[in-house]
Structures are given as C-alpha cells and as structure tokens.
Amino acid sequence: MERITPDRSPDKQTVGIFTGGGIAPGLNAVIYGAINVLAEHGHRVIGIAEGWAGMLEQKPIVEFQSFTRDRLQSLLRKPGTILGSSRTKITPVQYDQVRKTADGYGLDSVIAIGGDDTLGQAAELHKHAVLNMIGVPKTIDNDVTDTDKTFGFETAYNEAAHHIIRMRTDAKAMKRVAGVEIMGRDAGWITLYGGYFGGADITLIPEFPIPIERIAEQVRHIYSEQQYVVIAIAEGYIKNAGEADAFGHPHKEDAARTLLQIIKKETGLPTEVQVSGYSVRNGPPLASDGIFAAELGAMAGLLAHQKKYGHMVSLRGNEVTAVPLENVHGGRRVTADHYDPSTMRKWTLPPNIMRERPAIQ
Ligand code: F6P
Fold first, then answer.
1. 185 C-alpha to center of ligand 1: Å?
2. Cα 98 from Cα 125, distance rounded (Å)
3. 157 and 272 within one domain
4. Are 198 and 164 in contact (CB under 8 A)?
5. Rg (CA), the chain
6. Which atom of ligand 1 is nearest to the CA of 185?
7. What pLDDT shows up at residue 228?
8. Do 118 and 124 touch, CB atoms closer than 8 A?
9. In the β-sheet with 202-204, what is the strand arrangement from edge to edge?
10. At how many degrees (to 10) do helices 287-305 and 27-40 cross?
C-alpha cells in the first residue's frame, strides 16, 4: 500500500470542489478537510455549485479564501452540503462545455465528492482528458466498491437504529407488528447495521429475499413470545419502481407498507409502519463520521496538491489511501458473512470470522 506524505511544491494551483448525488452526513467535512490541506500549501479552492450541473453552466462559485476560521471549522459538523447537489448526467457532446467552464474558473483540477454515478462520470472525463479529476466516494448506502466504508454510512445507520428503538416503544405498547423502512437503494447495509443495533426482531434486506411464509412464521413465533414484533426493512427489499432519476435509478417506494399489508393478511396481527426516509441522511455527521470525512477530504487535497490525478480516495482497513478512479463502481452488497438468513438478522461474530465459518462450527 503506497504511503503518501505531504511535500511542499511552490506552484499555486486553483482546485475546484463539488458535491453530487444524494446528500450524506459529512459532505461539508470532506470540503473542510480538502481546504485544510490545500490552503496549507498556498492553493486556492473554489466551491462549484450543484454537482456536475455547476460544471455545465457557470453558476455562482464559493471562494473559500473569504471564509473566517470559525466558518470553515463549522463545516466539520454541518449537515447537507453548502454547495448544493444534483443528479446531473454529462454526455460526451457536453465535454467541451465542461472544459470551457473549468477554464473560465481557471481550474487546475477538480475534486468530485459523489457516489458511483458522480464518480463514474469523473472517471470518464479524466480518461478523455477533459478535467484532472480526483474522487471522494460518498453514499450513505455504503455500496461503492474499492473502499471498505463510505462516510455518512455510520451516521445513517445510527439514525435508522433510533427509528427502530422508538418504533419498538410503540409496537410494545400497542401490541403490534411494526415495520421500519430504511434507505439504502439496492443495498441492505444501513438496514443491516441499524436493525442490529436498534434491536429489530427481523431484518429484511434486498440481497437476501425471504419467502413470505417464512417471514409470517417468524412473526407469529416472536409475537406469541412478546406480543409485538419490530421489522427493519430496506427500501429496496420490495421492487416497487417509482419515477427514475437521471441515471435510471427508480425511486424506492412503499416497501414497508406493502410488506406489512401482506403480513397482516397472512397473520391477522395488527400492524404499523414508519418510513425513516431522508432523516437518515439529512442530519449532521456523528463525530466519528465527520472526522473520517475530513480525513478523506484532506487526502483528496493532498492528491490534488501532488497532481496525482485520476485517483479515488479509499479506506482500506484502517488506512486512507488512493485507488485508480476508473475502478469506481456501485454494487457492493451485503454477503452471507454479514447476514444470517435463517434468523433474518446480522451475525454478531465479525465478517472476517464468519468467512472462516467451517472452522468455527
Ligand atoms: O443513494 C443515496 C440515497 O439516499 C438512497 O439511499 C436513496 O434510495 C436515494 O438516494 C434517494 O434518491 P433521491 O436523493 O434522488 O431522492
């Protein structure tokens, strides 16, 4: 693993930074980290508005040099993104326009903070020498390959867990079967971890569809024991296709409502539903997530300073490193090392141990 350390080259660069795709707790902390390192080396950092849309047409930029120390430092804890975001698709016929915008801003390089859609475009523009790109993987879904974790994921599942804890209060008092729907698009990571810590009796994730008869049997069994059940269900568990976004991702809708209606029909038990929705991503980061995000941003700033373009910042084990940007893909899914379909819950043993499970059975 390459160990990258700061050096002090004399040239003063102008680096653009933008945030694309769905928001995640820690986006502003990434910006803080990148500014921290780049300003230390005397470079100018400008914020580009609304993701790739801001590289297509000249929108008002943010001059971070004008920020007071206090305003900069508060970015570590600030929810959302001060630059705004978008799900904007760039086509090859627009490459010249992107180049013109970059020249208009005098950009030497651009740091893109986004998921596989945003960074996939960054890789393309880098490959076609339109822009010098550096990527910071971002998604609460935690499903970007080539990094062990994405910032915002921990905060998202912490929030999901609190929805589950509160729905247990309700279900227990009302003697109901409660379903809590949790974001994650086609990945079950947030539901898996939030469900485990929140104490969900059943956790349902897209990677492991369970026959409804089996779910109903487990609901009856648990209800007979404690007169209530709490189910954590990933929004992608039931393929209700809503309107698609610019990258063709259909919006996930009504997974919990659909499932609990079926359970009510199968078991005759009273049910209630809560959709945690956008609350798992629109709050401030946990301290751990904010610091992790700032370190990723600082690494991106260092790569820009060292002109190591075409890289994505990545977490490997405990180390922040850099991997080729063209490797970025979505689709990192929960595996049987994390999830036990027979109990419909996360294993308690860590995944590396479960990977060797024949040795421990
Ligand atoms: O990818 C992040 C995410 O929050 C998913 O978990 C969710 O399904 C999707 O974005 C929501 O899309 P939008 O931000 O377009 O509403």
1. 6
2. 9
3. yes
4. yes
5. 22
6. 8
7. 98
8. no
9. 202-204, 229-234, 177-182, 271-275
10. 40
Atom of ligand 1 nearest to the CA of 140: 2
Shared-domain flag, residues 111 and 178: no
What is the domain range of residue 93?
14-151+285-327
CA-nearest residue for atom 16, ligand 1, is 22
Best probe residue, ligand 1, of 118, 240, 251 (max atoms within 8 Å of C-beta): 251
- Interval 220-230 mean pLDDT: 98
Asked whether residue 219 falls in the same domain as residue 128, the answer is no
Q: Which ligand 1 atom sits closest to the C-alpha of 141?
A: 6
The catalytic site residues sit at 141
Taking CA atoms only, the protein residue closest to ligand 1 atom 10 is 22
Weakest mean pLDDT among 49-58, 83-92, 244-253, 292-301: 244-253
Check: pTM over 0.70? Answer yes or no: yes
Shortest-distance Cα residue to atom 7 of ligand 1: 185
Sole residue written with tokens 């230390």? 40
Count CA atoms closer than 13 A to 189's CA, side-chain side. Answer: 22
Which of 312, 296, 311 has its CA nearest to residue 36?
296
Say if CB 279 and CB 140 are below 8 A apart.
no
Indicate if the alpha-carbon torsion angle 168, 173, 179, 184 is positive or negative: negative
